[in-house]
Amino acid sequence: MRGVEFNPCDEAGFTLIEVLAALSVFAIAALGLIHVSSENTHGARAIEERMLATIVADNEMTLTLVQRTPLEVGVSTGRTVVGGRDWEWRKTISTTPNPLIQQVKIEAWVYDEGFEGEQSVNVSLTAFKGKTS
């Protein structure tokens, strides 16, 4: 019977090149997953912001439409807190071709104290109200 000889080339295992290739494939896959997770977080934040802006606009629209006094044509603005954040809104009341109906448009966006210029509107609602005598 022959003795068993040790030959390092016969050992099972991975070479350094194979390990580096596997690590690079894993790193590329992990970066893709991180990107998808980041996009999901960004999307969820945008949905939350739009939902809160809709609440702000809905609240102001409701307050406007339940007024018993005639609405004055023009633009007014205001600020409110919803969801722990400051929001601004702009209410535009305008006439329509029918003199008995007025158009009410409410726009809402996140308040940014340091921002100069036109804000990016998150939501815009439009309704019509009949004039009361």
From TrEMBL:
The Type II secretion system protein GspI C-terminal domain, residue ranges: 48-125
Pfam families in the cross-refs: N_methyl, T2SSI
PTM: Cleaved by prepilin peptidase.
Subcellular location(s) per record: Cell inner membrane
Membrane topology term: Single-pass membrane protein
Transmembrane segments: 12-36
Protein's UniProt keywords contain Transmembrane: yes
Role description: Component of the type II secretion system required for the energy-dependent secretion of extracellular factors such as proteases and toxins from the periplasm.
Family designation: Belongs to the GSP I family.
Oligomer and partners: Type II secretion is composed of four main components: the outer membrane complex, the inner membrane complex, the cytoplasmic secretion ATPase and the periplasm-spanning pseudopilus.
UniProt-recorded name of the protein: Type II secretion system protein I
Source species: Hirschia litorea
